[in-house]
Design brief:
Elements (H helix, E strand, L loop, with lengths): L1 E2 L13 E5 L7 E2 L12 H5 L4 E9 L5 E8 L4 H7 L7 E2 L1 E3 L2 E3 L1 E9 L3
Antiparallel strand pairs: 1-9, 2-9, 3-6, 4-5, 4-9, 7-8
Length: about 120
């Protein structure tokens, strides 16, 4: 099961933790009005007992949709990295600057751990 790594206030108990965002802008958070399923642990990764942390960079538009995404830091396992990319289908509350929505890149950390 994946676990939440808390680095700052994140508005949803989703398996994401906010790391950094565009300077001078408030952080992006998952929009709780829209369902966002956590990624499933890949079967092959479970069998091979793979664990690790993935850092995703997501470009979030003013409408809260992910415009672009990339793995910024790999877990070291292709299947875990690929499964984490499912988070790019989530809808976010956009970052804001001076109270106005702003497009920008945000980084999120997802930890895959076996319990």
């Amino acid at each position: 099961m994946a676990t939440l790594i808390t680095r700052s206030a994140f508005l949803l108990a989703a398996p994401l933790a906010f790391i950094a965002n565009v300077a001078m802008a408030e952080s992006a958070t998952i929009d709780t009005k829209f369902p966002c399923d956590k990624p499933e642990y890949p079967r092959a990764s479970l069998v091979n007992e793979e664990q690790g942390t993935v850092v995703l960079a997501l470009q979030i538009g003013v409408d809260g949709k992910v415009m672009d995404s990339k793995v910024e830091k790999s877990s070291g396992f292709k299947n875990l990295d690929k499964a984490t990319m499912k988070l790019a289908s989530c809808k976010f509350k956009p970052m804001t600057k001076d109270g106005k929505p702003e497009e920008g890149w945000a980084k999120f950390e997802y930890a895959w751990t076996l319990s």
